[in-house]
């Protein structure tokens, strides 16, 4: 049986109440809160750190490869029934995965891929091809299934995108088009260590920059540097820096200047597409009427079989938050939703059971996963996403877990992280709202 922690709250502080309290502001938490709010519940989302979406590519993968490494998969939904029973997709079911993606499509209309259940193949900044279910509109002209010849343009100051290197790797994969890479110096006086948001801001504002003694709008100046490099290619790919406020207008402007289609190649952290996705989801959540608080950690809770309230640390005080239903979506190892020390692996907010080491054999259906077993560590749940204790009984009757805090899958190997977060977030949020109402 789980027990409450005992450190006292701030004296006299009234609890902040809601029907559903979501803990965590990543993709799983945002989807949980949005699903619950659209179900009609009074929802509050609390998050300590910045969302890991800022470190993500911005692509939404459902399932690119099987746990055995087979793939890339053409239709991820067809493969879900064959996954291990402990996999989060098996717990929520194929229908819920589809419904969750529909919620995402409605909340983020700037993404494409909703017209088909087939994975799209997109080039990455490392030169590999990635199967993904949803992708930003800005990447659509760069699909690897497109046969048009391609020029990739790198920026001298951005060492994470070596365009000739990426082009060579793409060519080695056997893509059905000719691809070249060229590197230019970005127009303007940006420092060599400028953040991607600085490039985006300059293109958003279309501020004038000095080019051979005269001032030229930034978008035109960038096109002028690329135009002489074209050798008949019909599309040009840039690293994902083409604006934050209105990237579509920037792509259109560059395309008009160059006479080709322009696309962005998803990048590693820090990720501008990830920031755009985060902004879109927060905007949808705000429109749905949810309350949002970021920057303060959950440090304590009260309750045994049922969570009564949690405490958020704010300016040295412990502020009680009370809800009928709770969703834990604090992330995995990267987001510190799951942590480890010499004694093992643990979940730090509610001390939910994380199967590992000596008990991993029984929990993962008698299978050992070799090099990937650590990646599968996470909170064990029942089919309703309620965390289970070591004896497979519910830890708390009004708590569900969602996203990468869950165990039983390897999101990096499967290319399933975003899809699992969206599907389990949707399921947890919707079910929490239904119980609270």
TrEMBL record:
Cellular component, GO annotation: glycerol-3-phosphate dehydrogenase (FAD) complex
Group of enzyme by EC: oxidoreductase
Pfam families, per the entry: FAD_binding_2
Stored InterPro entries: FAD-dep_OxRdtase_2_FAD-bd, FAD-oxidoreductase_2, FAD/NAD-bd_sf, G3P_DH_GlpB_su
The EC number(s) this enzyme carries: 1.1.5.3
Keywords assigned: Flavoprotein, FMN, Oxidoreductase
Annotated Gene3D superfamilies: FAD/NAD(P)-binding domain (3.50.50.60)
GO MF, one example: glycerol-3-phosphate dehydrogenase (quinone) activity
NCBIfam families linked: glycerol3P_GlpB, PRK05329.1-5
Identification of the protein by name: Anaerobic glycerol-3-phosphate dehydrogenase subunit B
Native organism: Haloarcula vallismortis ATCC 29715
Lineage: Archaea, Methanobacteriati, Methanobacteriota, Stenosarchaea group, Halobacteria
């Amino acid at each position: 049986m789980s027990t409450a922690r005992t450190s006292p709250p701030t004296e006299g502080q009234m609890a902040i109440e809601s029907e559903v309290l979501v803990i965590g502001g990543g993709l799983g938490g945002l989807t949980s809160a949005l699903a619950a709010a659209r179900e009609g519940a009074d929802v509050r989302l609390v998050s300590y750190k910045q969302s890991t979406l800022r470190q993500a590519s911005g692509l939404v993968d459902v399932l690119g490869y099987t746990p055995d490494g087979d793939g890339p998969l053409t239709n991820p939904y067809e493969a879900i029934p064959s996954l291990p029973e402990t996999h989060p997709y098996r717990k929520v079911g194929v229908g819920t995965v589809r419904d969750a993606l529909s919620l995402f499509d409605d909340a983020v209309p700037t993404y494409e891929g909703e017209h088909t259940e087939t994975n799209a193949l997109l080039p990455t900044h490392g030169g590999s091809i990635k199967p993904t279910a949803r992708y930003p509109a800005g990447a659509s002209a760069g699909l690897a299934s497109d046969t048009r010849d391609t020029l990739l343009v790198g920026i001298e100051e951005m060492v994470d995108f070596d365009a000739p290197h990426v082009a060579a790797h793409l060519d080695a994969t056997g893509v059905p088009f000719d691809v070249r890479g060229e590197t230019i110096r970005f127009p303007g006086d940006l420092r060599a260590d400028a953040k991607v948001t600085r490039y985006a801001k300059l293109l958003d504002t279309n501020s004038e920059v000095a080019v051979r003694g005269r001032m030229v709008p930034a978008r035109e100046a960038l096109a002028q540097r690329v135009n002489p490099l074209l050798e008949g290619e019909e599309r040009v790919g840039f690293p994902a820096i083409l604006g934050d406020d209105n990237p579509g207008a920037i792509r259109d402007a560059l395309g008009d200047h160059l006479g080709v289609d322009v696309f962005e190649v998803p990048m590693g952290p820090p990720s501008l597409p990830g920031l755009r996705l985060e902004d879109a989801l927060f905007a949808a959540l705000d429109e749905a009427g949810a309350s949002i608080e970021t920057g303060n950690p959950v440090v304590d809770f009260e309750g045994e079989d049922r969570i009564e309230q949690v405490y958020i640390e704010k300016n040295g005080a412990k502020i009680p938050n009370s809800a009928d239903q709770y969703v834990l979506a604090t992330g995995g190892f990267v987001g510190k939703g799951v942590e480890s020390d010499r004694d093992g692996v643990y979940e730090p907010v509610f001390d939910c059971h994380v199967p590992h080491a000596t008990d991993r054999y029984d929990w993962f259906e008698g299978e050992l996963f070799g090099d990937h077993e650590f990646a599968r560590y996470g909170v064990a749940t029942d089919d309703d996403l309620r965390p289970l204790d070591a004896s497979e009984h519910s830890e708390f009757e009004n708590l569900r877990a969602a996203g990468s805090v869950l165990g039983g899958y390897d999101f990096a190997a499967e290319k399933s992280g975003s899809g699992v977060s969206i599907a389990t977030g949707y399921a947890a949020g919707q079910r929490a709202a239904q119980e609270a109402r």
